[in-house]
Amino acid sequence: MRWGMVVDLTKCIRCYACIAACRIEHFLPIGMSWPRLVAMETGGDHPTVSTYSVRCNQCHDAPCVEVCPTGATYQREDGIIAIDQDKCVGCRYCIIACPYQNRTFLSKDKDKGFFPGRVETDFEKAGKKLYRHQVGTTEKCNFCAERIDAGLAKGLKPGIDRDATPACVNTCPAQALTFGDLDDPESEVSRLIREKGAFQLHPEYDTDPSVYFIDGKIGYSDEPEIKDDSRQEPVRT
Amino acid sequence: MEIHEWMINYTRQTEWIDRRGIFLWIAFYAGGLGGGLYLVSLYFNSLLGMFISWLIIAVVKGGTHLVYLGKPLRFWRIVLRPNSSWLARGIIFVLTFVVFALIQLAFSYWLPGTAIEIVFKVLAGISALAVTVYTGFVLNTVKAVPFWNSTMLPLLFVLCGILGGFGLSVIIGLSGGNVDIHAAETGSRWLLIANALLIAIYLIAAAHRETTGKKSVMEQMRGNLAPVFWIGIVTLGIIIPLVIAFSSYFVGDISSAMIITGVICEIIGGLALRYCVLKAGAYKPLVAIAS
After folding, report:
1. What domains are there in chain B, each with its CATH number?
2. Are A52 and B7 in contact (CB under 8 A)?
3. In this model, does residue A225 exceed pLDDT 50?
4. pTM of the full structure
5. Would you call A202 helix, strand, or coil by DSSP?
6. What is the average pLDDT score of chain B?
7. Which chain B residue is nearest to residue A94, measuring alpha carbons?
8. B contacts of A108 (beta carbons < 8 Å)
């Protein structure tokens, strides 16, 4: 069993619902974002907005696991790369080693509270009880491993049953995100990868990511040509 | 919502050089300098040099590493994965050096010339070499940053560390320590030339290692890092020490002030080299855009 995700970029409507859902699910501090939506303009005179919804790729051969000096970052049997916050020393070697830059160090300035200097909101108070974030450690997307574990314990099937599926996948109104078992050739993710030619980001790093993309607008090349004088400008949506 | 520009452009790493990352930069350099000084002091059998190198590694390197960590009280956990992590190996090297060198210093002070002293000199010497070299491996195993992904980096860091060690040993000699100043100057001279050549080869090789590597090199030579590169590495780190070294070779005795100036320039050059290497390390864009 290896959990994976397919992001259909042709369906993404840039609503940021996946990011909001993750923030609520994990009570993320205000300066922290596990998934990210990259929005950019492409095409010279008649630009179109393109987006990539990215998150930790849960690589099969994860460089972050290899370099972690404490064993805080580890790979579960289902392929998810997890972090034991109680073991992390905050050396940030994993952040340096990740070719996808999908890890974030939770520093004090990223955890100021929603209203700095004011009383904490009920949401923040609940979050501190239910999902403790430790300043001084590294964080990243974990495919909502706690939802998967709880769902499996109830006999549910991740990717099919909502209670066992990552929050971002559940909330996506355009159904651009699909979750399932990459090792099961009959799963929806395997079918999409097979039939729609889904690809991984930066395969040249040999990390074998578990997040695949279906791309209708932006191509992928091994060595991108990005000229200094024609930098792609990110746009707010 | 926050816009993540780094995902669509070449972006340099920031965690190990910006803000508190400055401590890691100092720690990396202190390891090379301390290890290099210990090896040079072993050659000259300078007890003062060995003691200073111990202080540099135990206090400066150890202290800055601790200050950098997000959770310094969990420091002991960092040694638990030496089978795969160069950072874990490196900290083990530092700890073994601190212990072996301390025992060696005690034997050298109270029981000099004994077999056990020689044993601990060998053990501490091996640990010092490992401390000098490991930061190069910490960086060159990061495939995500092509500028670092070079087998020459550990060699460059070792040479730079030993060069700094020769420089400091000259100052120790001038201060009355047991160092052959003439031999130390000769060592500095040859290592300066070797270091300059190695830096040039490293940069040329990096420039031919993917577009990202080339961008890192250009950032150093023409971008925001150009002042640090040309003033710090080239002028202070190579040209001025070389001029002073060859002046003493051709002219004969030169003033202590000139020698000390040369050593200070060498150390600034070493710091600038580590700074540029860390600061210029860049990632490919996460999302490639078809041109």
Report:
1. 5-283 (1.20.1630.10)
2. yes
3. no
4. 0.92
5. coil
6. 93
7. B142
8. none
